[in-house]
């Protein structure tokens, strides 16, 4: 089975797009409507997809083994989530790593001695086209006052890293992307830390 992973499938082929409508612009995202032909059935279908900017999630660890997190209000669930700092990659950011450094400073006032990539993924490829980049921020320390965006209500929370699995199991950390960031960190363990 593993020989099929990551290779072009002979069973599942790319759909041919016949028509693209003008996208609906909703500020932080655009909705695209297109007509595409199924290569399996030959049927034309109208499908929708969402374009969003790529974004970063930062896992900041202090020298004492604490993870710096944020309680943040989320309109999607109309409630507060315990999350890691992160946000959209801006046009002025030279790279995802630069965006990670900026987002950490803006949301928490923390800086770090190094940023190591933990990986990247497509958060929801069924309907969205963006990527999320994950970074470990080593030796994070408070350096300045946070400067969250006007639409962000944030409280900084410092927790022992060893408490994270229990917080995930009990639903206190409920965002799938934040759970994935911790999974990537714990899966790689000390291998991601510079020597």
Put the structure in a nutshell.
By secondary structure, the protein is of the alpha+beta class. It contains three helices and 13 strands; from the N terminus they run E-E-E-E-E-E-E-E-H-E-E-E-E-E-H-H.
The CATH architecture of the largest domain would be: Alpha-Beta Complex
Q: In percent, how much strand structure appears in the residues?
A: 35-45%
Tally of discrete structural domains: 2
Shape estimate: elongated
> What is the CA–CA distance across the termini?
35 Å
Poorly predicted regions? none
In the CATH hierarchy, the third-tier topology of the largest domain is known as Nucleoside Triphosphate Pyrophosphohydrolase
- DSSP helix fraction: 10-25%
Radius of gyration (Å): 19 Å
Order of helix and strand elements from N to C terminus: EEEEEEEEHEEEEEHH
Mean pLDDT: 92
- The CATH homologous superfamily name of the largest domain equals Nucleoside Triphosphate Pyrophosphohydrolase
Largest sheet: 4 strands, antiparallel
- Which structural category do the helix and sheet elements fall into? alpha+beta
Fold and architecture overview:
This protein is α+β, with helices and mostly antiparallel strands and 195 residues long. The protein folds into 2 domains: 8-52, no CATH class; 55-190, Nucleoside Triphosphate Pyrophosphohydrolase (Alpha-Beta Complex). The protein has helices spanning 96-108, 164-169, 176-188; strands at residues 16-20, 24-25, 29-37, 44-52, 55-60, 66-74, 79-83, 86-88, 110-111, 114-121, 132-138, 141-142, 154-160. Strands 1, 2, 3 and 4 form a 4-stranded antiparallel sheet that branches. The two termini are 35 Å apart. 20% of the residues are buried. The model has no long low-confidence stretch (mean pLDDT 92).
